[in-house]
Amino acid sequence: MPRIPLTWLAEHTALAPAASAQQVATDLSRVGLEEEALFGAQVTGPLVVGRVLELVKEPQKNGKTINWVRVDVGPEHNEDADDPKDPQPGEERPSRGIICGAHNFVEGDLVVVSLPGTVLPGDFAIAARKTYGHVSDGMICSGDELGLGPDPSGEDGIIVLGRGHAEGLTGEPGDDAIALLGLADEVVEINVTPDRGYCFSMRGVAREYSHATGASYTDPATTVDVPPAEAGGVAVQLHDDAPLHEVEGCSRFVALEVHGVDPSAQTPRWMARRLTLAGMRPISLIVDVTNYVMLDLGQPLHAYDADRVVAPIVVRRAAPGEKLTTLDDATRTLDPGDLLITDSEGGEGARVLGIAGVMGGESTEVSATTANIVLEAATFHSISVARSARRHRLPSEASKRFERGVDPLLPRVAAYRAAQLITEYGGGQVSERITDEGGAPAAGTGTAISLPIGAAERVVGIAYTPQQVRESLEKIGCVVEDGPEDTLAVTPPSWRPDLAIREDLIEEIARLVGYAEIPSVLPTAPGGRGLTRAQQSRRAANRALAEAGLVEVTSYPFVGEGIFDALHYEAEDGRRNAVRLLNPLSDDEPLMRSSLLQTLLPVARRNLGRGEESVAIFQLGTTSISRGENARARVPAAAQRPSDEDLEATLSALPVQTRALAAVVGGASGPDSWQGEVPPWGWTDAFDLARRAAAAVGARLEVRQIELAPFHPGRAGELRVLAADGTSTVVGHAGELHPAVVAQFDLPARTSALELDLETVIDSAPAVVAAEPVLTYPVAKEDFAFVVDEDVPAAAVEAAIVVGVGDLAESVHLFDVFTGEQIGEGKKSLAFAVRLRSAEGTLTAEQIGAARTRCIAAVDAAVGGVLRA
């Protein structure tokens, strides 16, 4: 995010009198530049110029020598707070006594004094305090203490006005040092959208401030003295085989030499201060000048040590296997898609100097001995730079600008501006020859866009006058000419590559006339519409789990490859077929989850690690299963609607995605009370929660025992829903987690979980639920215990009971499962409570007996069940 020091901004546009950072941020927000942060003055309070009247060196017992200094800080501030017993200066002029440990100043020097009440960077408040036997009534400041950084000369000590940090600065005792040193600067940090890269410069932001307030604006690019120069500078060759890489990577390359620069020359304090306020660290004069010009004009520059470059400089694509050690000391293997800057050492194009528009290499970087330099100012294609920056995960200030588009008319102007600043502060001579390979387009010769006068009103919905349309476009630098039949031919300026179609121009008109002029009109919702059945069902399922005491959470859908082994998936488990991201947010999590539990279990572990004693959470989210590495979607052309075949091929290649509902429960099921401990969550609760969610959407689940990771092999079940034709579909699983999984995620013992394919559950539920009448006749209660084979599901027995009893069955509930010697090996006993009721009258003994007989016969016929004696 660009940081805009107000004093720098004021050089290009007339800021309102006493404009604050808050006011400037408000003005910029009106033209779409949102405030990100505000930074006030780093130093507040009485920071003044002082003259050293007397300096007494006092050795201490610890071997250190301190200075007891009398400083004249002006009549307004000369209030002596020192002990009267202390020696007074020979002169009778009032002064302040201050303890100072630095030794780089003498009597008569002008220094910077922070008096009591001053607040320095880091919220460091200055007050009078007794030390070394004196009352030190303030502090004599160094550059570091004022946030100016260390002295560029390397001298360790305080600021002495006239040399070091404050070169060329003078003053009188009592003068305001905050204004003298430029410490009152306020800074506005703004958020720039990707289509407005020109606002990554003071030039662009000042232009926008002018649009917002009507203040005068001076384009800094027009103030640079660009002398006529002969061709024939450093040889440059553009060898980019663009057809293989879709776009031409470099359309213009300017190279300008500067000879005889003083390697020891220091960056001027004002420039270093501005770079610091803008968020950049001052390094050396040459590097700082290139950064300063980039921040000011928006054109990235790079300086090479001319004595290390072997001409010609070649711009080309990387060869397979080439490597480059960049300025961040990292050695990178280059990709054939990378656009490179190379020289000819060891053969044509043999040595790589840098990745174009991203970062230079260390082999030709400017050092402390560099006296001759080559300045590079080029125009690189935004797509080529963006791909290289992301490919190598190497964002830079240069790539930020090239990715968004840089004014192609700037390279020559920026190169001369940098050369002039270098020679002004570091000496040397600018070469009379310049290389400008590729050339620049003539101003105003871009492709014109046809814009009907009434197009803005039709799109935005408010009436714009022809004058407003024309003035808005001219204000942003467009060349506007009359076209046929009430249209305008609009040629965008060179610094606005984002203006490509008619709608772009309309957006600019709406922005400059003012978004506040656009009325807020809420559309009227059409009658008879509301939530869809799927939306209502999803909310109902969520509500059912929330009412059961669970908390809804959200987890990111990204997982690492180790999650599959952590959940003990088999090697052939289909859930290992996860979708791999080409550009993941984190290298540790390059895959999309194929099961909600893959991200829900880490959430449970994190919550427990933050002090929770139990876990009861759920999430509704999407899961994805890859169709295989060879399944790639075809990219249809944008010129026309894709054919049905193209759409079908595209859809069939997309990952299989579904909306799932998962929950994890473990530990105590509620808070303890005076009544004792509450029971823990268990595997039966997982099944109950699954049934609750299904019942909330109108579906019923059937449970069958199964062995499946990550569940305990003896306490897990497969969840099925029955279709109208009697077939069943697997929609999820529930049960107790495997002990190894519980240990892997540091969960409470016997933690349980469930996961449902909620979309399938919703689809299986009846669209219309018929209302059932409330029966007033008494209920008859019958209990049955059937002995069946061990592999017979209880749901099958329940279904047979319902068929046998018929319409009289009001409810059927399984209340006991028993195995043992009394039943026989391979057998189990299932006990059901059956409630019978008739809508026609009270059931007679004969009716109940007949229903009982039919029930027993139906279970025998369906599953071979025998009534237990």
TrEMBL record:
InterPro entries: aa-tRNA-synth_II/BPL/LPL, B3/B4_tRNA-bd, DNA-bd_dom_put_sf, Fdx_antiC-bd, Fdx_antiC-bd_sf, NA-bd_OB-fold, Phe-tRNA-ligase_IIc_bsu, Phe-tRNA-ligase_IIc_bsu_bact. It is found in: Cytoplasm. SUPFAM superfamilies: Anticodon-binding domain of PheRS (SSF54991), Class II aaRS and biotin synthetases (SSF55681), Nucleic acid-binding proteins (SSF50249), PheT/TilS domain (SSF56037), Putative DNA-binding domain (SSF46955). GO terms for biological process: phenylalanyl-tRNA aminoacylation. It comes from the Bacteria. PROSITE patterns: B5 (PS51483), FDX_ACB (PS51447), TRBD (PS50886). The keyword Manganese does not apply. Residues 775-868 form the FDX-ACB domain. It is an enzyme of class 6 (ligase). One of its GO terms (cellular component) is phenylalanine-tRNA ligase complex. Binds 2 magnesium ions per tetramer. SMART domains: B3_4, B5, FDX-ACB. Tetramer of two alpha and two beta subunits. This is Phenylalanine--tRNA ligase beta subunit.
